[in-house]
Amino acid sequence: MTEEKMKHSEKPGRIAIVTGGSNGIGKATAKALSLKGYKVYEFSRRGTDYDDITHVTADVTDEKAVAAAVGEVLSREGRIDLLVNNAGFGISGATEFTSTEDAKRLFDADFFGTFNVIRAVVPAMRKQGGGRIINLSSVASLLSIPYQVFYSAAKASVNTLTLGLANELKPFGISVCAVMPGDVKTGFTAAREKTPTGDDVYGGRISRSVAVMEKDETNGMPPEFIAKRIVSIAGKKNVKPLYSAGFKYQFFCVLARILPFRLSNSIVGSLYNK
């Protein structure tokens, strides 16, 4: 362990899995956890070892691949203390012009991928008497964004999964929570799958809405800021079910909870459906 890691280390020997850890928030989180003394395993479809992070090839949508990857970590370490579910992607386009296949692909990665890894990890955490699961959600789970409806819906499902699991797993000493970032400057923006079909029907509102979102993301928080928030939550004795990240987005989350749905949805429409 380097001198820098020894300086920052807390309770050495803890084992963490970060999905989607080859870039963006996942990579920043893996690095930050490593600096805190965790032995970190990064799950992604394509990647390599970096720093002190060990890459394990796994597609979170493939149950067998996930089970094998978790089994590999357990065979090496004998335990898993922390799971950070970060893997996912986004699509954009008018709902009526989005194919069922594309909608299912997004849910397979963003929701069922999270579920697959949780299901593979929980038995080990239960057997060892505890653990922590942190799921990456989004402010968009509370404020559904026009032309990115399926991403919002998948992240809302992650919130619901998180809330239910927090109660189910509490008796086993396993805590579950979700972090809801807002706009973050990562490769997620460039990787978004855009479907411009119907933009003429919608008077150009699809392309304008996506352009606004991409501008916000390009000027958004650095992934290291979200990683710092995740590491802080990982180290807490007790956790809340849902967290936001950044004062601006904490404010948005509060508004989403206290304003009537009709009003909050109207505000979102005024921003993203011009």
Which parts are unreliable, with pLDDT below 50 for 5 consecutive residues or more?
1-11
How many β strands by DSSP? 9
Helical element count? Answer: 10
N-end to C-end Cα span? 53 Å
Share in β-strands: 5-15%
Q: State the CATH architecture.
A: 3-Layer(aba) Sandwich
Shape: globular
> What would the CATH topology be?
Rossmann fold
Mean pLDDT: 92
Strand order of the largest sheet: 3-2-1-4-6-7-9
H-E string? HEHEEHEEHEHEHEHHEHH
Specify the CATH homologous superfamily.
NAD(P)-binding Rossmann-like Domain
The helix/strand class is alpha/beta
Any idea what the radius of gyration is? 19 Å
Q: What would CATH call the class?
A: Alpha Beta
User: In percent, how helical is the residue content?
Assistant: 40-55%
Layout of SSEs?
Elements: H1 3-8, E1 15-19, H2 24-35, E2 39-44, E3 54-57, H3 63-77, E4 82-85, E5 91-92, H4 100-128, E6 131-136, H5 149-169, E7 174-180, H6 188-191, E8 193-194, H7 205-218, H8 223-234, E9 242-244, H9 247-258, H10 261-272
Parallel strand pairs: 1-2, 1-4, 2-3, 4-6, 5-8, 6-7, 7-9
Helix pairs in contact: 2-8, 3-4, 4-5
Write a structural description:
The structure is a single chain. This protein is an alpha/beta fold and 274 residues long. It has a single domain, classed as Rossmann fold, CATH 3.40.50. The protein has helices at residues 3-8, 24-35, 63-77, 100-128, 149-169, 188-191, 205-218, 223-234, 247-258, 261-272; strands at residues 15-19, 39-44, 54-57, 82-85, 91-92, 131-136, 174-180, 193-194, 242-244. The protein starts with a helix and ends with a helix. 45% of the residues are buried. Mean pLDDT is 92; it is low at 1-11.
